[in-house]
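Risk register update: the risk of archive-format incompatibility is retired. Evidence:
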Amino acid sequence: MFLPFHDDNPTRRRPVVTYGLVAVNVIAFLWFLQLAPAQRYDVTMHFGFVPARIAQLSRPQSVFVPRDATMFHPRLGRVMVRQQVELKPDHGEILFSLVSCMFLHAGWGHLLGNMWFLWLFGNNVEDRLGHVLFLLFYLVGGLVGSACHWVIDPESLMPVIGASGAVAAVLGGYAITWPWARVHTLVFIVIFITVVDLPALAVLGAWFILQLVLLAYGAGGVAFWAHVGGFLAGMAMMPVLGMLLGLNRPTTATRQPRPREIPQDSHDRIIDVQILDDRDTRPRW
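Archived output:
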C-alpha cells in the first residue's frame, strides 16, 4: 500500500479552482451528512447518475428502483418492506445529475481519498491549463468517466456518486505531462512505514493498474470503469490542449541552457560548468 503526500513540482499561480472544488465537495458532503437516511437515499437517486435513466432521454417512461425500507408494525414491531422509487423522465434532472453526481460522496473515506489526490496533483494541471480551462477539463473528465460506466452497464439502476472520474482525469493529465516529477510517497509494508521518492509515472501508473486489477477481480460497489475512463480521458486531453494552446513550445522557464562554447586557444582558462537537476519536472509535450 502507498500514499503520495507531496510532489517536487512548483507552480506559478495560486490554484484557486482546485481549492474551490475541494471546498464545494466538502460543503456538499457536510450538507449530505445532516440529512435523514431516507432523504439521503432520495438525494442519491435524483442527483446521482443512474445509467438506466439515459434511456429516458429518448423514451419518456418512468424507471422504478427497488428499495428496502424499515417500517414499524403495531404488532410485529420493526419490519423490512420492499418498496419502489419512481424516477420520472425529467430531462433537466437527468442532465443535471451528470454534473451533480461529481459533488456527492458516500462517506468520509470516499471524500478524503478523492480530495487528497485532487489537492496534491490538481494544482499543477490548473497552473498548466489556466483556471477556466482546468475547470472544463475537470468536468469533461468526470463526464467521460460516467459515460464509460454507462457503456459497460447501461441498464444499471445503481446510482453513481463521487468525483473519482474527474479526479482520475487530473491524474491522467499529470502523469503524461510530468512523468518524471518526484513524488514523496509513504509506503506501507506490513508493519513498516517508509518514505520513498518515486516518479509520478510510477505512482499514478500503479494507481491505474490497481483499478484494472480490481476490475478483473470483480470488486463490487465501486464504478471502476469511471476511474479508468477518466484517467485515459485526462491522458488524451492534455497533449491536445497543449497543442491547441501552444503550451508545448519551450519557454524561458523550461528551455535548457545552451552550453558555452570553449575557445580553441583557451585550454588553461576556467570554464563554467552547469549541473542540471536530474529530477526533471518539465512538461513532456
